[in-house]
Amino acid sequence: MVFDVMFLRSCSLAVRRICSRAPVQTLPRSIGTSRTTGKDDEEEEKLDLDVWKTVMKTQALPEHQSDPSPSTLDFNRELVEMWHQAGKLVPKDITDEQLQDLAALTTKSAKKKFLKFLAIKEAHKISKKEKRENKPKPERITDGEERELKNTFLMKFWSGSLDRLQNWRAAQAMRFGQPLVYDMSYERHMTRREMENAVSQLMETEGFNRRSSDPFHLHFCGLTPGGAYHHELLKRYGAETWERMLITDTASQPADVFPREDLVYLTADSPTVLREFDHRKVYVVGAIVDRSIQSGVSLANAKRLQLATARLPLDEYLDWDCGAKNLTLDQMIRILSTVKDTGNWKTALEFVPKRKHCGFHQMRTGKTQFVRNNSAAPKNKTDGHKRGRERKMWWEEEG
Q1: Is 182 helix (H, G, I), strand (E, B) or coil?
Q2: 3-state secondary structure of 218
Q3: Are 182 and 221 in contact (CB under 8 A)?
Q4: Is pLDDT larger for residue 386 or for residue 153?
Q5: pTM for the predicted model, two decimal places
Q6: Is residue 266 within 8 Å of 254, Cβ to Cβ?
Q7: DSSP assignment letter at 147
Q8: What are the residues whose beta carbons fall under 8 Å from the beta carbon of 226, sequence distance 6 or more?
Q9: Cα–Cα distance between 212 and 334 in angstroms, integer?
Q10: What is the pLDDT of residues 363-389, one digit of tens each?
Q11: Side by side, which strands form the sheet with 367-370?
Q12: Tens-digit pLDDT profile for residues 202-217
């Protein structure tokens, strides 16, 4: 009872302070009947009640702000620390960006897989750093010592000169070279890990193209500014290096940059076989890494853009063993660059991983003869014994 009286007194004092700071404008009372006076009293009571509500809200707000709930990043950071103490495979150091990706995952199993991936990636970085530190450094020659010159008739080719030569070829390709388009409009079809793998393959693609003798003019079409692809490329290359890249990036579709009749979309699901490389065509490669093998995604995109499609002649040259006929982005540019320079599909398809096929086959007298690397060796001991027995019986009959 005493507490309630003290609480009401504090509320009334607060109301008086607010009223003294900002006086409430009330209607002038007119001389009239007692009924009008009663209405004015009710209006004043209602007005005082509203002021009391505002006072209570202002008093309750600091108490609510003084004890804030933990944020999502702090919660996930504590979760990673708790799993680390429990002995689970999680990274020791995790960034805020990785914590945001972790918070976006909904299931516990997905979080465990993501943290395991980060832990393995962190272990690889640590091992590479240790190897680099343990590698013996070349002895530096001081000013007092004399350097022993190597007797050779060859001039030393510096790496800076090689970089200038490769950049000059890439600059020439941007003006006179054959265009090669990478369609970057597959962000919504890939996960975070697949996006990082795709960017790694694109970096390998750009490096191989710059080192080749006759490089393509690379076009990154459908690259949305500020999107996931653009953000990851800026993160890998750096903003300054990305601006100096000898490639063309645009947010437009390939059909908006080149004539539609010159475009050929390369996809493994196409019914048309690319038997000859046409130097007048502009080939389009879908920049997608699909671990779940969603068949028909690139073919559907090509049909939506109303483009001609083709596939590499894998079945015509290779004895395909197992797995899908989807190749990585760096393997595609190796194959296309080789067939452009040599015109030989057999030489170009050497870049297809050996684990996916059993070897090349040749067409002879209407029949397919498979050429394998281990065709001469017997499959097992029983086959070899049978062959030796047949050969012996043949010699006996001959004698």
Answers
A1: strand
A2: strand
A3: yes
A4: 153
A5: 0.62
A6: no
A7: P
A8: none
A9: 9
A10: 433 344 444 444 444 444 444 444 444
A11: 318-320, 357-364, 367-370
A12: 999 999 999 999 999 9
